[in-house]
Amino acid sequence: MIYNRKxxxxxxxxxxxIIIGIIFTIAVPMVSSYILDSRKTSYYGTxxxxxETIKSEYDMMEFGDYLDDSEIMVVPISLIKLExxxxxxxxxxxxxxxxxxxxxxxxxxxxxxxxNFLDDAxxxxxxxxxxxxxxxxxxxxxxxxxxxxxxxxxxxxxxYTLNNTIYDFNGKEYTACDYRMYKKEASxxxxxxxxxxxPVIVMCEN
Length: 206
Prior knowledge:
alpha+beta, eight-stranded antiparallel beta sheet, 1 helix, about 25% helix
């Protein structure tokens, strides 16, 4: 019996390699885009969960008295524990808690909530109204675009000290004028343990 032992020619092998290369060229960006989109969706969901929790806590006065229209409130997300999910990390890395917080403004008509979130991979959002945030808002940002919480308040000799740093927010200037302990009263009776120990901060318009 005679067998046909003819193999692939060099041209056929090269053609197969080229086809495989084209497939990878098309598939890899599509898969990478899908993964990135999925991570952004997850990040957006976490931001929404934080803001909804903060809204509820503000309404229940867990941050103390309500604001007047010359004040804003800065709520570090490190104080908030989500009911489900990992509250320490994002889909890209770990939160920079010094630069991850929600700003609350208040008027006789409504409260507004602005998100500042940053992780160690420099993904997040910078001072965006929660009503305008979508998964498309999650992007790589310059960390200098978000002021650190320790610019507003610091811990010295186990006591909180309000700093005079000016915070430009929506066309107005604010400085820290008070702080509140989350779910506690009499803020000046509490000691701090370091610059990562940041309370709720009240900022007053200059």
